[in-house]
Amino acid sequence: MSTKSAEPRLLGRILGRDAAIAQLIIVTLVIFVLMTVLNSGRFLSYYNFESMTYLMPELGILCIAMMIAMLTGGIDLSVVAIANLAAITAGVYFRNPIVAETMGAGGAALILHTIAGVMIALMVGLAAGLLNGILISRLRIIPILATLGTGQVFGGLALVLTGGPAIVGYPPTWNWIGTGKLLGVATPFWIMIIVASVVAILLRRTNLGVNLMLIGTNARAAIFAGIRSSRMILYSYALSGVLAAIAGILLSGRTNSAKADFGSSYLLQAVLIAVLGGTNPAGGKGRVLGVLLALLALTFLSSGLQMMRVSNFMIDAVWGGFLVLVIAINYLRSAK
Amino acid sequence: MRIFQSTEAVIALVLILVMFAIGLVNPAFWGVSNLFSLAKSNVVIGIMALGVLLIMISGGIDVSFPAISVAALYITVRSMVALGYDGVMLPFIAACVIGMSLGALNAVIIDRFKMIPLIVTLGTASIIRGLVLGLLGTSIVNINKMPKELIEFGKQDLVSVTAQNGATVGLTAMVLVYLAIAVVVHLMLKYTMIGRSIYAYGGDAESARRAGINTRRTIFFVYCTAGLLAGFAGLLHSSMIWQANPRDFIGLELDVIAAVVLGGASIFGGRGSVLGTMIGVFTLVMVKNSLILMKVDTTWQRVVVGVIIIAATAITAWRDRKKLV
């Protein structure tokens, strides 16, 4: 009997007694069933789900980055630019003749330089995120405008580094991060799971997470409660910068190239998925689990529509319509 | 020295300094043809910026106006081509109506569901662009297919001067359209009840409501007018460049918002003026156009624009810093 009573409690803890999560599970299931019926046979194939595990992670990590910025009532419009800049900087490092030569020899040098490349990308993400954080928390620039501006700067720097065309020819180890397999499951998918778990723990079990929620709920009260608000906000944007860089590594690893204007449609999608996942753009509310569920729902939706040969433009319109629909549903739910 | 306390004076001073700096680096800046083309580049962005200004004064933000512009211009021109209709007046009315209805769509969602304007307009922008490209296609209506009268309208010059090399350069008459719209918006903001209510709503929505302002009417007015201006600017752009491209204006929202903020409008609402916005637009357009004159590599353009946005917003943030949070 004890297992029976423990089960709902465990389930309740995972779901967080959150109506939004329950609603999301329903939405995801409805879309799943709808797409399965509309694409008889093709949607429910192993190949389709396998390709989803490669495509989802980069967007998913960007969504988590967006959610973190939204927790304090902000937004990060520079995530895609950071992702591209990080990937391109690493690409420039690999292009360096000395690096390229030692990597060509293979073996340990190959792995070491790949690790160095990853570190460079992460450092770029961290620096970019810190710049966002400083502008927002110290100079008190409103997040929309600050990240709009830095997004231009990072995207512009990426353009300066490449001079326009895409950077190609990443080492095979780098591509493994984006296209490889580990224990039969896509490497990027593992990375997304790890990132999601770490962020979830960070937000729910550490001071940083609790403080961010408090700042987002009531910034003034948070200051009076003695929370070092501006430092916490700085950390949150730094974190979102690092996550964006990870997304950049996955994107460049998967496509074996990096370009200044890659993935520009990801920005809207990241905002949409974060909001759909129950994140309150006014701050104070947001969960990794919700974001992942929303990601799943929309991946099913767009993959199903693509199978039905719906044009990409129409899919964009559907995404936008979905965002408005979610806004309406959230409003009606909270009005009750 | 009271004059330096007004935001417009400070921006104007910055503008003049930048002009002289550019002129020093390359004297060609002061050439008549350059100044005329500069004025021309101001028109479309300027009209859009006036719409964004209204929204910013009301405390909102709009990233859907480039999509609205494209929808208005492309639907109008494609219908004209399909119907074989040629003219000026009716198409512009059509473009304005299209823009206004799309603005009303924004207003309905923002007002009805009490959602942050940024998120709403990100969504509607995606819907509008997606539908236009998905349903109407992506083909560009070229000069040989464009309605002739529309082109003639956009071609009109106010004055034309013969440059030293013998070519004649004209100042487009569309500058007058821009100025007229600016004057109307200015008078509306300053002297009408609805204009004052926009400032009141942007300053403090709750107080405005308690003071008896119909805030729903204010929101609808603001977003519909912004949509109307966007639609108008779209078709004007099309008649000035003699083609209708459904992929135009991508990323323009950043530039226009930057220009409006540069012009002293506060993103928190309640502050902003037509004159300031016009100066802001002029500064941004001038810097972008002059980067080539100053022999700055084109790849650096985005970086420069980004730095300008950050600097402009940092200055306004400094001005509004009194708030604790």
Could you characterize what this model shows?
Chain A: It is found in: Cell membrane. Chain A: Pfam families: BPD_transp_2. The complex is a heterodimer of chains A (336) and B (325). Chain A has 336 residues and is mostly helical. Chain A has a domain at 54-263. Chain A is 78% helix and 2% strand. Chain A has 15 helices and four strands. Chain A has helices spanning 2-15, 19-38, 46-71, 79-95, 97-104, 108-138, 143-162, 172-179, 187-205, 207-217, 219-224, 229-255, 266-276, 288-307, 312-335, and strands at 167-168, 181-182, 185-186, 257-258. In chain A, the strands form two sheets. A two-stranded antiparallel ribbon of chain A has the order 1-4. In chain A, strands 2-3 form a two-stranded antiparallel sheet. In chain A, α4 packs parallel to α7 (143-162) and α6 (108-138) runs antiparallel to α12 (229-255). Chain B has 325 residues and is mainly alpha-helical. Chain B has one domain (2-18, 31-318): Orthogonal Bundle (ABC transporter involved in vitamin B12 uptake, BtuC). Helices cover 70% and strands 3% of the residues of chain B. Chain B has 13 helices and two strands, in the order ααααααββααααααα. Chain B has helices at residues 7-25, 32-57, 65-83, 89-113, 117-136, 148-155, 174-191, 193-203, 205-210, 215-241, 252-262, 274-293, 301-319; strands at 157-162, 168-172. In chain B, strands 1-2 form a two-stranded antiparallel ribbon. In chain B, α2 runs antiparallel to α10 (215-241), α2 (32-57) packs across α12 and α6 packs across α10 (215-241). Chain B starts with 6 loop residues before the first helix and ends in a 6-residue tail after the last helix. The model of chain B has no long low-confidence stretch (mean pLDDT 86). Classes of the chains: A mainly alpha (336), B mainly alpha (325). At the A-B interface, α7, α11, α13 and α15 of A face α4, α5, α11 and α13 of B.
